[in-house]
């Protein structure tokens, strides 16, 4: 077994965290990551409800042996922190407060008994969340699926590890044991996995999203804001999203002159050629729709074998 600060503090057997992917990471997916030995997180996106958090938390705990993580978008809490209150009512083991300054919310999460982490995309982000008092950081590289920054995982990881004494988990491109072994060997305490789980039957979302992830290669993603604009999702402009290319992105990405109204008129969430599939470059490593439990266990086992060779 691989033992790190992360496994010891959260009582895990594997140093892996399931990404809190909005619209994809519900109770079934989070629970299966926890059942495998890591900790899964619900993706409590801006459009979710307190009722959804309660219902999905119960599912995650039942499947995952009691462990629970919940991820929230900090920028949306600044306008309405209802979802944070709903999340803390579930007494999660881990709360992720990402994409913004978590300072107003960290003490509340700690008082509820949770560890707090924040995903960061730059050294400037690191200084903000350090000052806020988070317990660890997630260095999320630009290869990651969904909303992310612009610095690639490898240089970001090195910069963050050199610049902080906080424990560091790494996200962005970890889709196999080789990826996990690499970040652990570099000094990280774990890996956060998202794209590798998107084809799993426990992931929420339309069936076509699973097929798209399986068929996508490493060059079949694009970094864009067109889906946020089409769906009136008011994400801060500094964060675009990495998605799988389709007819919608081919037509509209890179055209800032196009109106949000035109984008909305063209968008169709039920059409694989016009709907969004958030996924990272590690989609090129997803070859089949495997259960999330099996994916997590294999990544960890392969990493352990590779690290044993180094030793």
TrEMBL record:
It comes from Tomitella fengzijianii. Coiled coil: none annotated. The keyword Flavoprotein applies. The lineage of its organism: Bacteria, Bacillati, Actinomycetota, Actinomycetes, Mycobacteriales. One of its GO terms (molecular function) is nitronate monooxygenase activity. Keywords: Flavoprotein, FMN, Monooxygenase, Oxidoreductase. InterPro entries: Aldolase_TIM, NMO. It comes from the Bacteria. This is Nitronate monooxygenase.
